[in-house]
Amino acid sequence: MSRRDPQGVVQRGSASIDQPDYWWYRARSNLLESALGEHLGSPDRLLDVGSADGPSVAWMRTTGRRVNVDVDPRGLVPGEGVCASALALPFGDGTFDVVGAFDVVEHCDPETDALAELARVVAPGGTLLLSVPA
């Protein structure tokens, strides 16, 4: 995802990295949790694609291993985050019990490749949680 900052410079990644407490990010987190929270379960291995800044997925807590992937390294925590694209996830097939990607797929070209990558890294019987904007 790219955007222009106030000086007109193209920036990659989510605007929520700069304003994680903005009301919409908090509201969106609550909406996602209400709609998808019951499907999260208690995964041992969770992959969060495109939300390294955290405000939209704070509800996706797990006692297991959580890995964040984002194209923007600013929100990544060393040891928990990987700078990569949803089009080329650097993990083996079936690595994660749950994979979440919220408002990510529509920024990928082609979208079908991103969906295939997300599905590839979900373990058999695992869960893929997705959202796209209205």
Provide an overview of this structure.
The protein is an alpha/beta fold and 134 residues long. The chain has a single domain (2-131), classed as Vaccinia Virus protein VP39 (Rossmann fold, 3-Layer(aba) Sandwich). Helix content is 19%, strand content 28%. It has 2 helices and 7 strands, in the order ββαββββαβ. The protein has helices spanning 23-36, 111-121, and strands at 2-4, 10-12, 45-49, 65-70, 81-83, 96-102, 122-131. The strands form 2 sheets. Strands 5-4-3-6-7 form a 5-stranded parallel sheet. Strand 1 and strand 2 (10-12) form a beta hairpin. The chain is globular and about 35 Å long. Residues 1-11 have low confidence and may be disordered.
The SS-based structural class is alpha/beta
Provide the gyration radius in Å: 14 Å
The gross shape turns out to be globular
Strand order of the largest sheet: 5-4-3-6-7
User: Could you describe the largest sheet, including whether it forms a barrel?
Assistant: 5 strands, parallel
The name CATH uses for the topology is Rossmann fold
CATH architecture: 3-Layer(aba) Sandwich
Specify the helix fraction band.
10-25%
Name the poorly predicted regions: 1-11
Distance between the termini: 17 Å
CATH class call:
Alpha Beta
Total number of helices: 2
SSE order: EEHEEEEHE
| Overall average residue pLDDT | 82
As a percent range, the share of strand residues is: 25-35%
Please provide the count of β strands.
Answer: 7
Number of domains: 1
